[in-house]
Design brief:
Residues 21-48 are annotated as: Disordered. Residues 31-42 have a biased composition (Acidic residues). This is DUF3558 domain-containing protein. By secondary structure, this protein is of the alpha+beta class. The chain has one domain: 3-Layer(aba) Sandwich (Protein Transport Mog1p, Chain A), CATH 3.40.1000. The protein is built from 5 helices and 10 strands; from the N terminus they run αβαβββααβββββαβ. The strands form 2 sheets. The chain has an 8-stranded antiparallel sheet with strand order 2-3-4-9-8-7-6-5. It has a two-stranded antiparallel sheet with strand order 1-10. The protein starts with 29 loop residues before the first helix and ends with a strand. The relative contact order is 0.20.
Amino acid sequence: MVLLVVAVGGVLVFANSAGGGGEGGGSISATDEDEADAEEETGSGTEYVSLPNLCDEAVDSSILAPFFEDGIPTLIGGFNEGTGSMDSSYGTLDCSVESSHVLVEINAELVDLEDPQTQRELEGIFDGTEFNEEFMDGQSLPGEIHEEDFGLDMTASYLWDQTKVGDQSVVLVMATDAGEDFSDIPDASNSFAVGFFLTDNIAGSIVVNDSEGGRDVRELFNTVDSASGDLAKQLERVAVKK
């Protein structure tokens, strides 16, 4: 998927919503029609199919305050209907904001949970294998900080774990410390984090990249987890179901 790259341990269970009527026949009453109209107006249904066109209408940027020291810049981007990494996706929200050395990206893809390819992609996101093998040779356990020493005073710290946002979620944090020998090299020290979540059929992420580094790994993990939870709730409030 475009927005979901790697993730963390667990088994992803898909619960597909299915509408069903009661036994017996009968005509639709005026009350039934009124309820159906009300349901359509409030956007209730089985799957989310669209989000506001502009990022500042979809996301309250105040959730990004912990990542910026001098105020929050304006979110750029919006929702593109019918686009996404999957042919079956209803659309994708792509937002970004950058100030000084901090870049934050927010993404949300409205996916079809019944699509087999989507199911495979999401399972790969949330089982942790790709991240663990790519960056830590399978050595890192969820919830434990893994340290790497590359010599010449250059080190890296990794932390990943499942969290409790939406139906499935995971946060990944990577931080490098270049040490004194490489302190004059731009971006040699870096703090990177991403929170992935699945809530209903909204597959979302928030990505934080601080090119100056120096952030505490555990603290950054908790901050991204909190922001992911706020983002998931906001997207559910503004998304429209069919």
